[in-house]
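Figure 2 data, in text form.
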Amino acid sequence: MKTVLFLIAVMALSCATVHAADIVCLTSEDPNNYEAVTFLNGFADQELRPLGHQVKVITGNQPKPTHFDGLLSAMPDADLLIVFVRRATPPREELDVVRGHLQAGRPMIGIRTANHGFIPSPNDPPPPSGCATWPDFSPEVLGCQNAGYQTEGLPYRVGLLPTALQDDPLLEGVDVASIQGHQSLYRVLPLAKNVRPLLFGTPQNREPPQPVAWTRTYGDSHARIFYTSLGAPQDFVQPAVRRLLVNAVNWTLDEPSGQTTGRSDQ
């Protein structure tokens, strides 16, 4: 009997095992980017690598113009791209590999400042020759507007949108009621038609509420997109926010809830 049980356990483990995903995180050293480099390195070490994922954190050399050393070689194998960068104007070929990733139907997670990830400030000079911008990244890829702050510097409550399903795998294990937004709530409305909002933020005495987490698909190849405007360092201390991001990794990689592994055809 012990032998039979052992064989059953081995078979079950074998069936559950798939190849880990290659995840590329795109960020930059920028004092206005909410300690994104620190967060992504910690998230990779604490949440993603222990689950078997291969994670490369590609850190730009400066806020702008930004060269993402290693991006060109990392992207061909990327199963998932995580973008947490603001107002970058990288060399054109680097931005082109991001476009190619999405056009191939591969997924992306955008965090907070990805809302204006490749949009220079109106007061910035034109990018140097050979560098590129993506002014329509927010409406085209994320499915939202980059319209400033609903509240600047103020905390806000986070709640579940009435249209979101309680049993949505993206919300599994997420105590929404415990989430507090700690810095400026982004103004993102209106959203694209195929956006599926999950969470919204409500500042005190300020209407309307603004969505803070959603999913959609992008392009003819239907790349899965998850975006959240949460992203202040205080936000990521909250277990519910970290669990939401782990669930987003599952969803973008099209994995069942509770698994965080990528393609099995490598």
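Caption note: The helical segments are 2-16, 36-48, 71-74, 92-103, 137-142, 233-236, 239-252.
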